[in-house]
Amino acid sequence: MVNNYGPTETTVVASSGLMLPQGVLHIGKPVAHARLYVLDAHSQPVPLGVPGELYIGGT
């Protein structure tokens, strides 16, 4: 089974990943030409494990 993730405002898939039994639920890796960023309230990247806002970019 594959988990595809994308913003609700559009019909695009931004990331995709395999779902494995007993595995951690995740949004996968960015698809081709997409980049995912987790940013703080000042649009700065946050360290791994720190909550933030998900931003999606690419061409």
UniProtKB/TrEMBL annotation:
Pfam families: AMP-binding (PF00501)
InterPro entries membership: AMP-dep_synth/lig_dom
One biological process term in Gene Ontology: amino acid activation for nonribosomal peptide biosynthetic process
GO MF annotations in UniProt: phosphopantetheine binding
Domain AMP-dependent synthetase/ligase: 2-58
Any single Gene Ontology cellular-component annotation: cytoplasm
Protein name listed in UniProt: AMP-dependent synthetase/ligase domain-containing protein
Organism: Pseudomonas syringae pv. avii
